[in-house]
Amino acid sequence: MEIVTKRAYEQGSASDGYRVLVDRLWPRGRKKEELNLDEWCKDIAPSTALREWFAHDPKKFAEFKVRYLTELQSSDIPKELLERAGDKKLTLVYAAKDPMVSQAVVLQQYLQTLL
Description:
Order of helices and strands: EEHEHHHEH
Strand content: 5-15%
Distance between the termini: 8 Å
Number of strands: 4
Number of helices: 5
């Protein structure tokens, strides 16, 4: 299975496969129809406390990654998401401006370890 990330502000395509919004908050300025999602998986996103602490500060990213991985490892939601996607390509949709300082990148790497 291929797992990729894509910003919510990029155009979706049929080649995206199973599209999942992985943010706890809805992306600003985007309508439901525009995102063409298969699901919105809020519960796979970082906890509200972790998200607020991190605030997409690149200096905190290393520690954020450790804390978020701890949250992911204590949950069955990542495995359940992979099951729902089946054998389709899985596209993790996120709203962060910097793709390298995003929970979607951490989630992508973690999901790949479960395959």
